[in-house]
Write a structure and sequence with these properties.
The protein is of the alpha/beta class and 399 residues long. Helix content is 40%, strand content 14%. The structure holds pyridoxal-5'-phosphate. Pyridoxal-5'-phosphate binds next to helix 5.
């Protein structure tokens, strides 16, 4: 179809004009084009647990095929509330506080649309998961950024400057997004860091929107602390989570928010008009997934520790400086040793000549200059996939 007529009006939304296409999903297309090993997008290439696939099949066979309750099947909401009590000691009312959405992606945008007005500001730590910027803009808010600084040594931690964080808060600040364990850095926010954020939220009357989708993927004895569990945060925290990462089902599109009842009420309205509801049979499978024994979570974390420790030596051998992740399933690297102009040129070379797809670091920063010497690899892959990537990456040394 031709698209060349001269329209009298500007037919596209100004908001969308600020967006670039998702770099991560573009890298997946490049990986297919070049038959490269895809260490770009964060989806597992191994099977999901048999029990939960069976629960999904059973639900379809039992004709759970029509709309679920808009804010989520009761079974799943009850399981979500139970898990919050078990892992974080936080009491949640599944009838008033939980909204099941189409992935945590929809949970985030529904939350921002429910709480933001024009001229509000949303504070985001950067580097950040690329959806947060466009999400803020779609909700009418202005994103403000606070830097996470890379560690000086391989085993060090990403940190932020307390004064810089304070300076990002003012009377226009509506919310701060905290993603812990963090994509792309692998940072797990400590209790004292969360307390510092909590104190600012209370002082400036700001909401905390926490993306905790990697809560069970933790290494080196690190513990995940939910912001909502901190004294003073119950009334001002919206916790976002989902099935994608914990149960290796990124394509199922089941996520949720847990919020104080009045905010949950607003989120439910937005969610209803945006999507009506998440897939009904997969919500039933979600209830089964959230009832897996605690050993499941220990095995999940151990599996990822094994993968992390398989990929990082191969990257280091090939010449990357790796920042050791404490959680989530990505490793951020410094590519200075390769002498490329920037991360885009480097990742293009990597995908087309070496046969490995990774994500250019600049896609995680507002000012793309900041990430030009960084590249992110995902290690949510089978050993064979990681080993194939390692063999290909070894060619970098030679070239
Ligand atoms: C930090 C973070 N939040 C949310 C998502 C998307 O989650 P979902 O599949 O539940 O929409 C991702 C996916 O990579 C992520 O890294």
């Amino acid at each position: 179809m031709s698209d060349v007529i001269a329209h009298k009006k500007h037919l596209l939304s100004d908001k969308v004009e600020h967006f670039t296409e998702s770099v991560i999903r573009e890298m997946t297309r490049q990986a297919l084009l070049h038959d490269a090993v895809n260490l770009a997008q964060g989806f597992p290439d191994f099977p999901a647990p048999a029990e939960i696939k069976k629960a999904a099949q059973d639900a379809i066979a039992a004709d759970v095929n029509q709309y679920a309750i808009t804010w989520g099947a009761k079974n799943l909401r009850t399981a979500i509330a139970r898990q919050m009590q078990t892992w974080q000691g936080v009491a949640v009312d599944p009838e008033k506080q939980v909204t099941v959405c189409c992935g945590s992606t929809e949970a985030m945008i529904s939350t921002l649309l429910a709480v933001c007005n024009a001229a509000d500001e949303v504070v985001i730590f950067e580097p950040y998961y690329e959806n947060y910027g466009p999400d803020s803009i779609l909700s009418g808010a202005r994103p403000g950024f606070v830097k996470l600084r890379p560690p000086d040594s391989a085993k060090g931690e990403w940190t932020f400057d307390e004064r810089e964080l304070r300076a990002a808060f003012d009377r226009h600040t509506k919310a701060i997004i905290v993603n812990t364990p963090n994509n792309p850095t692998g940072k797990v926010f400590t209790r004292s860091e969360l307390e510092l954020i909590r104190d600012l939220c209370v002082e400036f009357d700001v909401l905390a929107i926490t993306d905790e989708i990697y809560e069970h993927i933790l290494y080196d004895g690190t513990k995940h602390i939910s912001m909502v569990a901190l004294p003073g945060m119950e009334e001002r925290t919206i916790t976002i989570n989902g099935m994608s990462k914990t149960y290796s089902v990124t394509g199922w599109r089941v996520g949720w928010t847990i919020a104080p009842p009045s905010i949950a009420d607003a989120i439910r309205k937005v969610h209803d008009f945006l999507t009506v509801g998440a897939p009904a049979p997969l919500q039933e499978a979600g209830a089964a997934a959230l009832s897996l024994p605690t050993q499941y979570y220990a095995a999940l974390a151990e599996g990822y520790r094994h993968r992390r420790d398989r990929l990082i030596p191969a990257l280091e051998e090939a010449g990357f400086q790796c920042f050791q992740p404490r959680g989530a399933y990505y490793v951020m690297t410094d590519i200075r040793a390769f002498g490329f102009r920037d991360d885009i040129a480097f990742t293009k070379y990597l995908v087309s000549e070496i046969g490995v797809a990774a994500v250019p670091g600049s896609s995680f920063y507002r000012d793309r200059k900041d990430g030009t010497q960084q590249v992110r690899f995902a290690f949510c892959k089978r050993d064979e996939t990681l080993d194939q990537a390692a063999r290909r990456l070894a060619k970098l040394r030679k070239s």
